[in-house]
Amino acid sequence: MNVHEYQAKQLMREFNISTLNGKVAKTVDEAVAAAKELGGNVWVVKAQIHAGGRGKAGGVKLAKSLDEVKAHAKDILGKTLVTHQTGPEGKKVLTLLVEEGCEIEHEYYAGLVLDRNTGRVTFMASIEGGVEIETVAEETPEKIIKVAVDPAAGFTPFIGRKLAYGIGLKDKELVKKAANFFGGLYKLYMEKDCTIAEINPLVLTKGGDILALDGKLNFDANALFRHPEIEALRDPTEESAKELEADKFGLSYIELDGNIGCLVNGAGLAMGTLDIISLFGGKPANFLDVGGGATKETVEKAFSIILQDENVKAILVNIFGGIMKCDIIAEGVLAAAKSLSLKVPLIVRLEGTNVALGKKILNESDLDIIAADDLADAASKVVEAAKKGEA
Ligand code: GDP
Ligand code: MN
Known about the structure:
Radius of gyration: 26 Å
Number of helices: 13
Bound molecules: guanosine-5'-diphosphate, manganese (II) ion
Distance between the termini: 39 Å
Number of strands: 18
């Protein structure tokens, strides 16, 4: 789960990670009032969306007067920002963060991720941070240092110093400040079950402070049950309405950009189904795992969610009845097809418990269902049907 920069910074402050003072604004007037309250004579108006690359897309602007704050807020609020992380459709800005400005001496990069190869939480840091970090990673990867944390020892002062020296700091006081910063970030990452913590840029100010100018935190969705305070930061406007609705019914649904709707039980089978559709030259419109314990009602719900996607030209139901019985699925399919007056071709492949009964229910219905014998047969039939639908 993702949160906004202003929320990430609130959390960081709880872990003694220095940030600038800022205030959230939803309107232009609020933005101006925020700047007034913060005081000073330089502010930064920042778009709050769940994506990076805002600076380059015009979503981060420096203001040197309240009039400029007003002008920038007007410009950014309501705008759809397209960055390298939003996809071509972009993201609409509904919230701003107005921050006090600072004089930057240097921009560094700091990140924490779980390295799955080593199984260790690993710091990445670079002397060259800021909006060009992708170029640094591509052209001069040696400028990004990596330091893994031994899970038994945890964060040690040694790691902090290694990182600080690694990004080129020499002054004793600064090394100490940076080491504390990294320690705080590690503590936050572990205690809040993050999957990513990224500070880009981490800055050294002209006044000699080390602080987080930007902050991106990502949380492990499987650990949210023990962090209601993080769950409360969820912004539904940033998430797909269909995915949220599916979640309420215990369905795992991920929207994709193809035209073949998939209704499958089990994540592994769902992945396999996407693969085989691609192998036969088709493009899946979604990943959908209805789970092991689905009922007639959840199957109906699953259909209605798939059908909300106008790109869907054919649907493949691929069920292996283990815990879930094929006849229950068949009844769910029938109920859904009737109540939603299904118009796209439906290809069904059933296997497993009560398969004969399931097939009988489908065959005896007056629905136009294309039965498939096995997965390859199902994939070739659904790809063909989707092609006809596009024609
Ligand atoms: P991102 O592009 O989405 O990663 O947004 P950032 O928050 O990283 O902002 C992009 C760039 O704006 C930073 O790399 C800084 O160069 C600049 N910036 C952000 N905040 C400030 C600030 O308070 N003062 C100054 N001078 N520049 C800032
Ligand atoms: Mn950034």
